[in-house]
């Protein structure tokens, strides 16, 4: 599923190529599963004639800033993707449609033609995305229910340590919860835990201040690097577990060490037992009775590469309630602002 880096790559492309242009034509699919709470004709009428001023993001959600409300918002789900004709935009590999396919794609949910002839399309092959018209995206669900954005509004080490100290659940389950921290999905969670040497089933509240600091550093470095290269996985460091997490059990190795596969937070999870020890032993492993080892057979899932994520379905596994931190308003610059993975 598309995660923060993929959605951020889409946001940057839209802002760079579409800002300042008027919407000349809009075609919205008659698909109420994806187009949420409004008819396609009403959606189209709300877009035509509007000028695009920019694009914003929070977590794995993106929305267009127009010269007047309402604003179209995109919750990418499992396979949502932004296409701009003639412009390369990195996509989650299982979202991608072929270059030889018709344009706009048969999977297009919103097609927009701008006044200079540029064409934009939001596609969704799996139909788990949600496209909405919102008067104020940041104050309305699902965006209002998100935790701090992992890139634009990151927790400090002390804030992270305090937050995890109250959570007696597996650390990966916590990282996947978009109400805790927005933007981290399945592949990022696996990567940051691998880089930090933390077992995915480690109980969050067991983490020391030192290990929280290591985790904080890993989250920052992984996300910043992925965003820096516009989510182009071919440019991810070769020592990332990302490159090997879809290989078969027994044939998956990273830096010479075997990768094992289990279920954590309801998602297939890649980790290195030799480096990621479970300090809580059996007690930690029992914390989630749904987290069963899949070392002999790896279940085929929709986790992915080239920008994979854990989107909409992760959150449906269980949203974690917590008090939101009082933070300043998200800014759309270097601290810019947009699926528990429920959202």
TrEMBL record:
Renumbered to this chain, the Basic residues biased-composition regions fall at 318-335
Record-level GO cellular component terms: nucleus
Query: Listed GO molecular functions?
Result: class I DNA-(apurinic or apyrimidinic site) endonuclease activity; damaged DNA binding; oxidized purine nucleobase lesion DNA N-glycosylase activity; zinc ion binding
Xref: InterPro entries: Fpg-like_C, FPG_cat, FPG_Glyclase, FPG_N, H2TH_FPG, Ribosomal_uS13-like_H2TH
Q: Which CDD domains match?
A: PF_Nei_N
State the residue spans of region: Disordered.
Answer: 279-343
* Positions of transmembrane segments: none
Specify the Formamidopyrimidine-DNA glycosylase catalytic domain's residue ranges. Answer: 2-129
Q: Which UniProt keywords apply?
A: DNA damage, DNA repair, DNA-binding, Glycosidase, Hydrolase, Lyase, Multifunctional enzyme
- Catalytic activity reported: 2'-deoxyribonucleotide-(2'-deoxyribose 5'-phosphate)-2'-deoxyribonucleotide-DNA = a 3'-end 2'-deoxyribonucleotide-(2,3-dehydro-2,3-deoxyribose 5'-phosphate)-DNA + a 5'-end 5'-phospho-2'-deoxyribonucleoside-DNA + H(+); Hydrolysis of DNA containing ring-opened 7-methylguanine residues, releasing 2,6-diamino-4-hydroxy-5-(N-methyl)formamidopyrimidine
GO BP, sorted A to Z: base-excision repair
Q: Which NCBIfam families match?
A: fpg
How does this polypeptide assemble, per the annotation?
Answer: Monomer.
Q: Give the family per the record.
A: Belongs to the FPG family.
Protein name (database record): Formamidopyrimidine-DNA glycosylase catalytic domain-containing protein
Naturally occurring in which organism (per UniProt): Trapa incisa
């Amino acid at each position: 599923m598309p995660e923060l880096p993929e959605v951020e790559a889409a946001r940057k492309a839209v802002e760079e190529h579409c800002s300042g242009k008027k919407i000349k034509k809009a075609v919205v699919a008659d698909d109420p599963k994806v187009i949420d709470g409004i008819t396609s004709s009403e959606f189209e009428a709300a877009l035509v004639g509007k000028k695009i001023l920019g694009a914003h993001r929070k977590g794995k959600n993106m929305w267009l800033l127009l010269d007047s409300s309402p604003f179209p918002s995109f919750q990418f789900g499992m396979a949502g993707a932004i296409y701009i004709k003639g412009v390369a935009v990195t996509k989650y590999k299982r979202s991608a449609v072929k270059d030889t396919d018709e344009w706009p794609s048969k999977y297009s949910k919103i097609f927009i033609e701008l006044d200079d002839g540029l064409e934009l399309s939001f596609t969704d092959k799996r139909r788990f995305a949600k496209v909405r018209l919102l008067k104020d995206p940041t104050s309305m669900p699902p965006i209002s229910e998100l935790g701090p954005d992992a890139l634009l509004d990151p927790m400090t080490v002390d804030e992270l340590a305090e937050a995890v100290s109250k959570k007696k659940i597996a650390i990966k389950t916590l990282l996947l919860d978009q109400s805790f921290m927005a933007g981290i999905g399945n592949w990022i969670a696996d990567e940051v835990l691998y880089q930090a040497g933390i077992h995915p089933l480690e109980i969050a509240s067991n983490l020391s201040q030192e290990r929280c600091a290591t985790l904080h550093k890993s989250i920052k470095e992984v996300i910043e690097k992925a965003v820096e290269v516009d989510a182009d996985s071919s440019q991810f460091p070769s020592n990332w577990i990302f490159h090997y997490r879809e290989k078969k059990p027994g044939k998956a190795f990273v830096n010479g060490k075997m990768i094992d596969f289990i279920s954590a937070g309801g998602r297939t999870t890649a980790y290195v037992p030799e480096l990621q020890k479970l300090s809580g032993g059996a007690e930690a492993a029992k914390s989630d009775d749904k987290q069963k080892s899949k070392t002999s057979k790896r279940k085929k899932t929709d986790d992915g590469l080239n920008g994979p994520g854990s989107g909409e379905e992760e959150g449906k596994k269980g949203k974690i309630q917590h008090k939101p931190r009082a933070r300043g308003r998200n800014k759309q610059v270097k601290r810019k602002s947009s699926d528990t993975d429920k959202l």
